Amino acid sequence: MDREIVRRGLIEAVFVVLAGFSMGALVVVANFAEYGLWLSLDVGGTIIFVALAAGIAIGLRLQDAEPQFLVLAGFVASSIAIVIVVLSVYAPVFAGVVPSLEALGPSDSARAVIIFASLFLIPIHLVGCVAGYALADFLAPEGFRRGRAPERL
Amino acid sequence: MTWFAKAAAVFVAVLAVVGAVAWVNFVDRYVAASDARMQIPGNVGYHDVTIPAITSPDQNVTVGVLFELRNPSGIAIDIMHISYRLYMDNLTDTRPFAEKSASIFVVPGGFFPPGIGYVVGPHTTALVWGNATVFGATQPTQLERLNVTFGGHYYPIIDASLVYRVHDTSIVERVLGIEFPTPQGGIVPYGS
């Protein structure tokens, strides 16, 4: 029984990490459109759509979990996304091709805006998680629905 | 597991795959472009300067400056233009360059490729000529300033700037103050 819970928890953790990674990756790609990338995205639309969609997906996955785990999963996924954004912005420094990003020009404020904008992933992703959780309850077959027991109504 | 949980799993997996591919593409180009922006300023210089001998006052003189641009980065760059100002040093005038520059300036010149620019591939070196022409018949003052030799040698001063774009991006950079180190004995007139 415990092994089953751990296995389920690990599987859901993998999806939370994947959601966080995909959010961070797509947001950073949208922010650096001037590099002529394979994928061209709008920054605002990407932050809203990806955070909401990934949140809904996580909410649908965690339909059986307690709400506090859902919120925790939302925070973890969006934190992973922000870490991905920060790591990506500083990628040339980590790759060792520039001593610091200041060497590339006076665009500190632009980098700060990218990191600041990624913070919006947290509330939007949490809203998505809650929406997905509610949607799962709505879509679930009668016997699988959460909610208050009839005798307590 | 319900059908929508499976659908959500597939959606997250697809999103992650698309994100991973796009992110790898981004990191590759971002790091390579940053590398290029760091290294190009130290890898542009002069390969040769040719100034013909001046034999008549209405001669048209074409000064050739051969620029060398090494691109050690892993991404191509487009030379949008190289422009320069040609001065001919007067060794008898001992004033600092800033003071005498107006009196020894000859003509501007440069390399102006058409279209998107001259593409220099990754890990390659380009040699491009940037010419400047003095029309003796209409620019006698410039020709006179150009025709200043000491011991039969020219002592040109060239101050160039390069504008380039990282290939397939909208990142445009400028390299200013590419100064020509005049050889110790000056330059022998071409064709003399």
Protein described:
With 153 residues, chain A is an all-alpha fold. Chain A has one domain. Chain A is built from 6 helices and no strands. In chain A, helix 3 (67-89) packs antiparallel against helix 6. The longest helix of chain A has 30 residues, at 2-31. Chain A starts with a helix and ends in a 14-residue tail after the last helix. Chain B is an alpha+beta fold and 192 residues long. Chain B has one domain (3-179): Immunoglobulin-like (Sandwich), CATH 2.60.40.10. In chain B, strands 3, 4, 5, 9 and 10 form a 5-stranded antiparallel sheet that branches. Chain B has a 3-stranded antiparallel sheet with strand order 1-2-6. In chain B, strands 7-8 form a two-stranded antiparallel ribbon. The relative contact order of chain B is 0.21. The model of chain B has no long low-confidence stretch (mean pLDDT 91). The chains are: A mainly alpha (153), B alpha+beta (192).
